[in-house]
Design a protein that fits this description.
Blueprint lengths: L2 H18 L5 H8 L8 H25 L5 H18 L2 H15 L3 H34 L9
């Protein structure tokens, strides 16, 4: 197996794992379809913006939950925004945690909200690492003269 084929297999295994484990769903594949020769970094740019916005939202959520009197409606608004952003890039596990988080906001359950915040932070970190690996493999494939496989 040549170097390009080996890298493509690693890429394919990586994306399949993320899909099977629920880190990503078909929305990510749809996002990849929007990328072309005219905008080869489209997905990387969208995902980078997602993680930049995520850090701000996570900080806002944490600050809101640290207040003496927690404004659960405000926390819920942040979580709702985060859930929508997660869904737009196909980050299913993050979106699913946000659904639980919103239920705890509605119930004004501070402990549940704090647990969900930790879970969202953890899922976000794991997803970021996995996507960075995927994007690194894509760069290596292109640098070796290959093309990125399509997601089926």
């Amino acid at each position: 197996m040549d170097a390009v084929a080996h890298l493509q297999k690693q890429w394919f295994d990586c994306i399949q794992h993320m899909l099977q484990e629920g880190f990503l769903n078909d929305q990510f594949a749809e996002l990849k379809k929007l990328q072309d020769e005219n905008n080869p970094d489209f997905v990387v740019e969208v995902v980078s913006l997602f993680f930049e916005d995520s850090q701000k939202l996570l900080s806002n959520m944490a600050r809101a939950l640290e207040q003496n009197v927690v404004d659960f409606k405000q926390v819920d608004a942040y979580v709702h925004q985060f859930k929508g952003s997660s869904a737009s890039i196909g980050a299913m596990r993050l979106k699913d945690v946000c659904v639980s988080f919103r239920n705890y906001c509605e119930a004004q359950n501070l402990e549940g909200c704090l647990r969900c915040l930790q879970q969202v932070q953890q899922e976000c970190s794991v997803l970021k690492n996995k996507l960075e690996r995927l994007f690194m493999l894509e760069q290596q494939i292109v640098a070796a003269g290959g093309s990125i496989p399509a997601i089926h």
